[in-house]
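Thread title: Can someone regenerate the structure for this chain?

I was given the following input by a collaborator and told the matching structure tokens would be attached. They weren't. Posting the sequence so someone can regenerate them.
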Amino acid sequence: MLIKIQEADRVVYPNNPLAEVVCQARFVRMPELASPSAAMAAFAAIGFTKPFEPPRVNINVVAAGFPVPLQPSIAAYGATTEDGVWQVSFSADAVSLVCNKYLTWDDFLPRFGSVFDAYSSVFEAPQLSRIGLRYKDVINRETLGLSGAPWHQLIHPFLLGPLAAGVFADEKAIPEDQVRGALTHGVIDFGDCSLALQSMLLRSVEDARQTVFLIDADFFREFPEGSRDYKTSHDLHAVLDALHANAGAMFRRGIKEELHDALISSK
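Best answer:
Regenerated them for you:
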């Protein structure tokens, strides 16, 4: 029996820890664009008026433990809104929306819908292979009034790795200054979606004593054979709402009450 993430009430945190939210649709690869002008015009019409050039993407495939030679790099293109808060990038097999000042799902979802529909209008309903919704939360204890609180007092053990209490000694946690780095990674199937989950301790370049904690959760659903059932953003709403609900529930399970209280505090 597949275990699902236990549901949790949706919370809008006044002290929002979200550094970035990304929604990406991947498709069965199509011929490279001779010119991105039609797509750039479609995105400009919905507010993405400042072009930029993302780096080309090289794909390295590993089969049965042996690396396969790199596939040719994929040309990528992009544009941002005038305020730089929203960014779209696209290639012959993907389109992404990035937001670095996330407010609400009701604001984000229709924006991605417009991006998806603009891309599909240029590429004439490409075959969807994957849809993903990724949240990057950065927990900064100092800005939350939690200076000095150990990470195991704020975050549950499944995200902490060597920082969790009781790992090396019963009921004790290793001092933070003895941990040069900490990274956890896992990919989990939940039935209605999958999750690529990473967490990481990040140290300031200027002051190694200054640390923040990153929780990076990428919820996704794959369509291995490609699908033409999702021709418009409206067709994707139920899938994206499910990914969004799981993301909120996972974050709530990952943090303890002291951190939750600090995130909702009006102080």
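The chain has four helices and eleven strands.
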